[in-house]
Amino acid sequence: MTRWGLPLALLALACAPAAPGGTADQAALCRSEADCLSTCDAERPAACYALLFLYSRGEAGPESAKKGHTRLEQGCEAKNATGCHLLGAALLEGLGIERRRAAAAAAFVRACELGRDADCALAGEMLKNGRAGPPDFPRARTLLDRGCRRGNGASCTELGNMARHGEGEAKNPARAATLYQQGCDHGDPVGCGLLGTLLGGDEGLAADPTRAANAFEKACEGGVAIACTSLGVMLARTDARKGAALLERGCSGGQPAACAYLATLLYEGSGVDRDVPRAVELLAQTCDKNLLESCTLLGTVLASGKGVPRDEARAARSYERACSGGDELACSGLGALLLMGGSVPKDEARATSLLSRACEAGRADACGVLGAHFHASGKDTLAKPLLERACRGGQSSSCELLKGLSGAAP
């Protein structure tokens, strides 16, 4: 579903006065099949759309739906922009009629031409992304440019996407930033969020943290949860309390990355009161959504037992998941648990394999654990190079062990 997925349930007529897209029309207040039949005509298309809505819920008959569809078509043909918009909405979602995306796009194009600027963005996005047939970049650009020039922020944002991704033109991040700014200035929070991302400096533009933060803040206030997350991560480094509040907002908005980052702040007590049980809860949730870093940190917290009861078996399962996904820190943690045994069955062969793999990948902690194991087993020839690598990597305990190995063979 794109940003243009139409929330048709918003037209629950008993409580909503507007049709999708914010079409204000008092005819949408009709509450029954009979009411809607009496008010549905080419000049009051919302009541006709309502008949399709009621039919989709089993609250109106097929003849009523047929009338609603016919009157929407007649209204659009009579140059009623709202009729074209609602006809497109019904065709796009298959609301009481057959879903026909090409016909929906044509209806949105007509609505755009009749002055509904938001429909320029709807039609342009559909044509650009091939949701109404093969992508038609030139026609999409024409529609989006029309909407943008008339002050529709979403149209400017979609034009920015075309420039950013090279859709029908050469990639041009500078032009994309300009268009995103226009989209943001015209009230499109998605444009604000994309502008913030572009100003991070990863796509050839000079990084501008202050401007990026301002853009993310506007997007966040506009309901773009991922922008709250991005701003929260930025501010967590300089204003942990404000950063944590924004991450809380992003997490509540369904952003797993926000929940994961918030969990680290809760575990450390940075910007928020320390709350290890809630940190574990959030890490478990985001681990289940395949954020490997969350699985790894969850394993570390559970293996240490600092702030929550120690649970080596659950820690091992979390490490296993992250290690299987390529997180070498998790492989190191899992190897250490398998080496020690206890509530996790000891498996020295697999532990050695995992620790060796993590050590070769640059994990000094893994080199140190494996080196210490070989030293304790009297295998100082194997232990020394591992401890040296660990010591160079900043593992002080490995440096201390090396002092007693001066006589070991190289």
3D structure, described in words:
- This protein is mainly α and 410 residues long.
- It has a domain at 363-405.
- The chain has 22 helices and two strands.
- The protein has a two-stranded antiparallel sheet with strand order 1-2.
- Strand 1 (18-19) and strand 2 form a beta hairpin.
- Helix 13 (240-252) runs antiparallel to helix 14 (256-268) and helix 18 runs antiparallel to helix 19 (348-360).
- The longest helix has 16 residues, at 62-77.
- The radius of gyration is 29 Å and the shape is elongated.
- 50% of the residues are buried.
- Mean pLDDT is 89; it is low at 1-28.
Write a brief caption for the model.
This protein has helices at 33-39, 45-56, 62-77, 81-93, 101-113, 117-128, 137-149, 153-165, 173-185, 189-198, 209-221, 225-236, 240-252, 256-268, 276-288, 292-304, 312-324, 328-340, 348-360, 364-376, 380-392, 396-403, and strands at 18-19, 23-24. The chain has 410 residues and is mainly α. It has a domain at 363-405.
Give the key terms:
mainly alpha, elongated, 2 strands, 410 residues, two-stranded antiparallel sheet
Rounded to the nearest angstrom, the distance between the terminal CA atoms is 61 Å
Task: Categorize the overall geometry.
Answer: elongated
Number of strands: 2
The topology string of helices and strands comes to: EEHHHHHHHHHHHHHHHHHHHHHH
Extract low-pLDDT stretches.
1-28
- How would you classify the helix and strand content by structural class? mainly alpha
SSE layout and pairing:
Elements (H helix, E strand, L loop, with lengths): L17 E2 L3 E2 L8 H7 L5 H12 L5 H16 L3 H13 L7 H13 L3 H12 L8 H13 L3 H13 L7 H13 L3 H10 L10 H13 L3 H12 L3 H13 L3 H13 L7 H13 L3 H13 L7 H13 L3 H13 L7 H13 L3 H13 L3 H13 L3 H8 L7
Antiparallel strand pairs: 1-2
Helix pairs in contact: 1-2, 2-3, 2-4, 3-4, 4-5, 5-6, 6-7, 6-8, 7-8, 8-9, 9-10, 10-11, 11-12, 12-13, 13-14, 14-15, 15-16, 16-17, 16-18, 17-18, 18-19, 18-20, 19-20, 20-21, 21-22
